[in-house]
Amino acid sequence: MLKPGSSALPGRRYNPIMPETARRRVLTGDTPTGSLHIGHWVGSVKRRVEIQETHDCFFLVANLHAFTTRADKPEDIRRDCMEVVRDALAMGIDPSKASIFLQTEVPAILELTYLFSMLLPYNRVMRNPTLKDELKVKGLEDNYSFGFPLYTVGQTADILAFRAHDVPVGEDQVPHLELTREVARRFNKFYCGVPDKAPDEEHVDLGGVFPIPEADVGKVGRLVGTDGIQKMSKSLGNSILITDTPKQVKKKLGKIYVGIDNRQPNDPGEVDPEKNPLFQYVETFIDSDDEVAELRDRYARGDNIGDGVIKVRVAEVISELLEPMQERRRQYESDDVVMDILHDGCQKAIAATEETLAMAKEAASLRFFDRSINI
Questions:
Q1: Do 253 and 351 fall within a single domain?
Q2: What pLDDT digit, counting tens, does each position of 72-99 carry?
Q3: Range of the domain at 260
Q4: Is the domain of 165 the same as that of 94?
Q5: Looking at the domain assignment, is residue 189 inside a domain?
Q6: Where does residue 250 rank: exposed (0-12), middle (13-18), buried (19+ CB within 10 A)?
Q7: What is the model's pTM?
Q8: What is the number of structural domains in the chain?
Q9: What is the DSSP string of 111-134?
Q10: β-pairing verdict for 267-271 and 263-264
Q11: What dihedral angle (degrees, nearest 10) is formed by the CA atoms of 34, 86, 25, 285?
Q12: How far is CA 153 from CA 167, 201, 371, in A?
């Protein structure tokens, strides 16, 4: 394995571009399919805001992954990249504490994607339940590009290129992370001599290039959309965007489907909050445990409170959450400001991933020359 300060190449020394720190490294990101919404906030972004204070954070805008379903709309993807960055900054990502970068500006990710694709059987990739769900929800079961399953391999490269320790994800992305963990173990075994049964936490100490990353699932792994059925998604038209006005929030929540009949089977006069998706919003967005307990109790007993009252209250607290986000977002209306932030983030991402790529190529006997990349 290539260690910082050493090289297997005669007469050369490997100079690390980014020194190791005592802080754990984090990688996560978003595919720019549209603006971010409150499902992103509770599923992942809130956690990112918290850990940017304690970790080395890299947040990716996966613009190449967006081409898996919208290759014919490159200008739309470019526009959405800018909007996703604005939304992330509005939610509280601090560019002085975390690096926000574009996937397509970091060539090491693409090189590692190709290498990792050699370590995964095709049928293993296609068994990924998240991939199967996406194909079904997007109606692509019989009509998808070769790049669609390849992007799941690309996600492993997104993470491992940074030698990330932790990956804040929604519940639905955990299978992708498990694939990443398999790739890291296999690479470390094949090319670094790490024993097959080595504990995950010992891989780097035993000479592996890649730490085995861990999922950091948000408090709400899967927020149901305003249709009351599917996961919240802008493409499904069931999302509340962080740019929505109080009037828009109230209107969207007013349409949420709460089930045909959620009455208790033993007492037709009582209703069951557990069968009402609206109560996921109650427990997610209302901070007071006492208020949540009171609403659940009154709703269950039919104590002069119905879906309409709950919807109005949830709309209020969501609008209160969004107000400071919308205020921050106005600071980033200029494309020039966003581009400067992305440029800085891409430079740091390139530095980190070029170091990883050099280590991986050395381990796999693929490294012949040093290189540097500047943007």
A1: no
A2: 999 999 999 999 999 999 999 999 999 9
A3: 234-329
A4: yes
A5: yes
A6: middle
A7: 0.84
A8: 2
A9: HHHHHHHTTS-HHHHHT-HHHHHH
A10: antiparallel
A11: -80
A12: 16, 23, 25
